[in-house]
């Protein structure tokens, strides 16, 4: 079942929600989502003191909370809010790391409607402050690391009436393929090492 | 009404929740909470391109979502989760900024039970990665900036059987009083300028 935000964007359940739903289903051999792979990667980075990078909680507007005596508060009514930032941030070797992760099943191009204005503005602000800003794109059976400065170029082209997506060829030119590992599944810090250190 | 997490800690409603509740009440001359003051400060920093620092959303475990046709998804059952990080982070002049804000009404000391193990571990990890980690304490009619390295000292003293709080005198010795402004209400970047640049 797909949940949608008021703006029509789909809600990606967090790992925790997913576990709740899957408790009656077999855990073996389940497909990992991009978010789960990134959570595993970040957990590995954290445990090995490589970096401290976390996914931010899903922003929720809480309207009504029930507070039964002697037990935990229950949120009875709440709504998904659109985030004003990207989903992931943290610190690596003293540098500020900030990124968003998106996937497409599209075979020929990466649609820009995976992003919204607030996120793009946030990436610009992070670049202005000297932070490392990028997106991880799951597309065409690969993971791509695309610097925010390039995403901004494609975004501006769209705003100027140009195409509403990034082609596979453009990704191959401007993005880096992220090496996959067993523990650091989507080992994006390898790209950061190459580009910034 | 005070909501509590399963561990007994009180839930601090976000600005948004608060607005919802206050819509029928007069907005004039209301007292600002520490969180509201920090949100205003960070908004001012953001708008003036001084820094990009945000409060993370309240972590919520979503259990049940209702998805009415033609309208927004409604979260019908959810629970507050304990965060594994601090509440605020972002980037300032290329550096990673990470902090937690807490207040006490206590007149003589700042109780350490305002923090929990996960937050303290997170602060240690941030320091290890070369990030700027601190706490903003509202206490004794002042705002204090206390570097995480000092908080860790007090925390370890407690774990070694010592006192469970930081005295006013200790704060005066190890913390910095944060200047208050009109727009940057709790102007903590002034302290960071002094200490790190």
Automatic annotation (TrEMBL), chains A, B:
A single GO molecular function, which one? hydrolase activity
Q: What's noted on cofactor binding? A: Binds 1 Mg(2+) ion per subunit.
Q: What is its main location?
A: cytoplasm
Catalysis: reaction(s)? Endonucleolytic cleavage at a junction such as a reciprocal single-stranded crossover between two homologous DNA duplexes (Holliday junction)
Gene3D superfamilies in the record: 3.40.1350.10
Needs which cofactor? Answer: Mg(2+)
Q: Where is this region: Disordered?
A: 1-22
UniProt site positions, description: Transition state stabilizer: 102
Q: What does this protein do?
A: Endonuclease that resolves Holliday junction intermediates in genetic recombination. Cleaves mobile four-strand junctions by introducing symmetrical nicks in paired strands. Promotes annealing of linear ssDNA with homologous dsDNA. Required for DNA repair, homologous recombination and chromosome segregation.
EC number, as in UniProt: 3.1.21.10
Compartments, record wording: Cytoplasm
The name this protein goes by in its record: Holliday junction resolvase RecU
HAMAP family assigned to the protein according to its UniProt record, in alphabetical order: RecU
Tell me which UniProt keywords the record has, alphabetically: Cytoplasm, DNA damage, DNA recombination, DNA repair, Endonuclease, Hydrolase, Magnesium, Metal-binding, Nuclease
Report the InterPro entries cross-referenced here: Resolv_RecU, Restrct_endonuc-II-like, tRNA_endonuc-like_dom_sf
Similarity section: Belongs to the RecU family.
Species in which this protein is naturally found? Metabacillus rhizolycopersici
- Chain positions recorded as Mg(2+) binding sites: 85, 87, 100, 119
Source domain of life is Bacteria
Supply the Pfam families for this chain. Answer: RecU
């Amino acid at each position: 079942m797909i949940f949608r935000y008021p703006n029509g964007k789909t809600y990606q359940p967090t790992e925790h929600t997913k576990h709740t739903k899957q408790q009656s289903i077999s855990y073996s051999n389940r497909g990992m989502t991009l978010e789960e792979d990134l959570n595993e990667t970040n957990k590995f980075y954290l445990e090995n003191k490589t970096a401290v990078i976390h996914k931010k909680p899903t922003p929720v507007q809480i309207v009504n909370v029930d507070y039964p005596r002697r037990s935990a508060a229950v949120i009875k009514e709440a709504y998904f809010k659109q985030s004003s930032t990207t989903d992931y941030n943290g610190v690596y070797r003293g540098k500020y790391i900030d990124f968003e992760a998106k996937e497409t099943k599209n075979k020929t191009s990466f649609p820009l409607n995976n992003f919204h204005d607030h996120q793009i503005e946030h990436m610009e602000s992070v670049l202005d402050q000297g932070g490392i800003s990028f997106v991880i794109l799951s597309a065409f059976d690969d993971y791509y690391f695309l610097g925010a400065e390039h995403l901004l170029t494609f975004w501006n082209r769209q705003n100027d009436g140009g195409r509403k997506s990034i082609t596979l060829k453009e990704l191959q030119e401007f993005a880096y393929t992220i090496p996959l590992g067993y523990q650091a599944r989507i080992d994006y810090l390898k790209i950061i090492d190459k580009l910034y250190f």
